Amino acid sequence: MSFLKKMFGKQDPVDEMRQCHARQDWAAVLNIAARIDRDELDEGVIVEINDWESQAGDTLAAMNLEEGSWAQKSGNLLRAREDYQLAIEQARSVQLRERAEQALAALDRGELPPEETVAEASPALHAGCNSCAPAAGPVPDGVEADLDEETRMELLLATMPPDLAERYLAAGAEFQQAWLTAQDECYAKLRGPAENMTILATGKDVSGKAPTDRHEPMLMVLEYGNGRVFHTTLGHDDYSIESVGFIISFLRGTEWAATGKVTIPIPKDFPTAEESISRKFERKK
């Protein structure tokens, strides 16, 4: 299959759901499950997509239950209520739905949910992020098999000015790969002319609350005359700016904006596609 056909061709929803499940794109799995007509499918396929849907729903519910607890402890009660209500809607297992209902009831009483309620509700990978997922993930068999890493990089670099492409290559393999943010918000539907702008990184909302089902710009640079602008949409709370991914991208971005060069190295504790890493701040009184 050609590259253009894969980009623009219509895809079977079951295959699409299978690929999203392999990438652990849980929000997309639920979106596809809602529009699949199961009346004409074989029983074995129905069982398979039901399993994918259950895993996606429970994973997202566990994440939102945990984030609701964080929001409640931080005093953001409206956000906590939204997280708990969404967890109730997403949960497929009876036990997880009951835990989310218990957390919401505790909130109504002015109490925190029992610690075991939140801990037991986290069978999913701990994204630590209500929104942003890695920009890439495992590729299932048969998907984009003819697009190796070198080809993908060439396609990305072709969209950049030559000098910026050279700097991007010099950033190092760690920075070029997908990495998992700490708990944060994933801005969507950004407005503006988007002229003279190069997008360095995108992120995907996996909370199930996203207004779009697509990757959104996270890190970008603009050059205007002799001026340089680095823009990040990350870093919305104290726990967000503790993320090593935020810290390093912010430092390197501001260094480039100030000097036109990037010399700050990627540290050994930079996050991976599977693990979010934070540096806890000590607040001085």
Tell me the structural class. alpha+beta
Secondary-structure element order, N to C: HHHHHHHEHHHEEEHH
Give the fraction of residues assigned to helices.
40-55%
Total strands: 4
Cα-based radius of gyration, to the nearest Å: 21 Å
Catalogue the unreliable spans. 1-9, 122-147
Structure annotation, total helices: 12
- Strand numbers in spatial order across the main sheet: 1-2-3-4
- Give the amount of beta strand, in percent: 5-15%
Residue-averaged pLDDT: 75
Count of all domains:
2
What is the overall shape? Answer: globular
Distance between the termini: 61 Å
Largest sheet: 4 strands, antiparallel
Describe this structure in words.
The chain is an alpha+beta fold and 285 residues long. 47% of the residues lie in helices and 9% in strands. The protein is built from twelve helices and four strands; from the N terminus they run H-H-H-H-H-H-H-E-H-H-H-E-E-E-H-H. The protein has helices at 3-8, 13-22, 26-35, 43-73, 77-90, 94-108, 115-120, 149-157, 162-170, 173-176, 238-241, 244-259; strands at residues 132-133, 197-205, 216-224, 227-232.
Outline the secondary-structure elements.
Blueprint: H1 3-8, H2 13-22, H3 26-35, H4 43-73, H5 77-90, H6 94-108, H7 115-120, E1 132-133, H8 149-157, H9 162-170, H10 173-176, E2 197-205, E3 216-224, E4 227-232, H11 238-241, H12 244-259
Helix pairs in contact: 2-3, 2-4, 3-4, 4-5, 4-6, 5-6
